[in-house]
Write a structure and sequence with these properties.
This protein has about 350 residues and is α/β, with parallel strands linked by helices. The protein is built from 10 helices and 15 strands. Helix 3 packs across helix 4, helix 4 packs across helix 5 and helix 5 packs across helix 9. The longest helix has about 40 residues. The protein binds adenosine-5'-triphosphate and magnesium ion.
């Protein structure tokens, strides 16, 4: 669990220090005050990745060289500094040459108000959902993902050259196929485990009245990646990109056997997206212990019944950080500290 959070030059925060509680922590404030940035900082500090930006550059406060995030997680102090000219990570003050040990410290699930995109959006969003979980479940996942992405980028760069550098392209086929096959296997088993957990969560928040949820992995390579890659050579030559492989993976989401993006109601889609996140939390809990939950502005949008059902479905033992513009929707006392976020500063309410 986190006990403290310190930021410097992160988004709108020049400097911030905050001791947090083991259970619920509320951050409230009007729009554009820094609520999402706070949760983003926790995510970046633990996972070295932002839930809303693939690049970390935009997280550096305007006109500053670098940001720093320091988290106290149990007995471990995590430090991450990032800027155009520097990137460093440290555990208890000891600089780390790679992120392997650092990423073993803390795990989390991020609930955001853009989660609806998991249902409606492009496949890329569902791949990122799997990757965020996969990297936390198993260090090998991140290793193969990075190796695959590197091979894919290199190959795609070469495929745009004329004349086609066939030998150089072929040299990347090995790493692409090897990491690609591993990634396919890892994602297939993730989805297999996620499916029942998501269906249970869907029932819990939908109060048992919602349709049955089914998840299925749709591999972008098929069982024989080498064969489909070889068969796509002509298409690659025409389009200049690698056209098959795990970078085309997707996950189908079915409610009572029908595509949720097309047939589910707004409320059902929202419930489904929450169920997908609760399923992540459940998988992490079973494998590594209770993850931290970051909940960005999601309760205000649910009707009171679903809101209470979601609250009840959140693991009671998990440390939770919630942002919201107001607490009017809360029935009863908040059950944890409430901070007000105003223009990049925190005060206790
Ligand atoms: N790199 C940056 N440097 C300085 N300010 C930034 C940077 N990136 C974003 N901001 C600003 O930080 C402020 C807080 O953004 P944030 O997304 O955290 O707000 P929020 O409180 O979550 O608002 P909302 O309720 O609208 O979601 C915004 O005014 C945003 O423009
Ligand atoms: Mg926000």
């Amino acid at each position: 669990m986190l006990t403290s959070l310190r930021l410097r030059d992160f988004r709108c925060f020049e400097a911030l220090a905050c001791e947090v509680a083991p259970g619920l922590n509320f951050f409230i404030g009007p729009n554009a005050q820094g609520k999402t940035s706070l949760l983003e900082a926790i995510c970046v500090g633990l996972r070295l990745a932002s839930p809303r930006s693939t690049l970390l550059g935009p997280l550096v406060r305007h006109d500053q060289p670098a940001f720093a995030v320091r988290l106290q997680h149990g007995r471990t102090q995590l430090d991450f500094r990032y800027g155009a000219a520097e990137k460093s990570i440290a555990l208890d003050g000891v600089q780390q040459g790679n992120a392997n040990d650092y990423l073993q410290v803390g795990r989390l699930v991020y609930f955001g108000n853009t989660d609806l995109e998991l249902v409606r959006g492009r496949g890329e969003i569902r791949r990122r959902y799997l990757d965020f979980l996969g990297a936390q479940m198993e260090p090998l996942y991140r290793t193969h993902l990075r190796a695959y992405e590197r091979a894919l980028r290199s190959r795609n760069r070469l495929l745009k050259q004329y004349p086609l550098p066939r030998r150089e392209i072929a040299a990347w086929d090995g790493p692409l196929l090897e990491s690609g096959a591993m990634l396919t296997a890892l994602r297939a088993s993730l989805v297999q485990e996620l499916a029942p957990a998501a269906a249970r969560a869907q029932m819990a928040i939908g109060l048992g009245r919602d349709a049955t949820l089914d998840l299925a992995y749709l591999p972008g390579a098929g069982p024989d990646f080498a064969a489909v890659l070889a068969a796509s050579a002509e298409q690659e030559r025409r389009t200049g990109v690698t056209s098959v492989g795990p970078h085309r993976d997707d996950v189908s989401l079915l409610l009572d056997g029908r595509a949720a993006a097309e047939f589910a109601s707004e409320g059902q889609q929202r419930t489904l997206a929450l169920a997908l996140k609760l399923a992540q939390a459940e998988m992490l809990r079973v494998a590594h212990g209770q993850p931290i939950l970051l909940l960005d502005d999601i309760f205000g949008e649910l009707d009171p019944e679903r809101r209470n059902a979601l609250f009840a479905a959140l693991p009671a033992a998990a440390q939770k950080f919630l942002t919201t513009t107001h607490l009017d929707w809360l029935e009863g006392p908040p059950g944890g500290p409430v901070w007000t976020v105003h223009e990049g500063r925190l005060s206790t309410a």
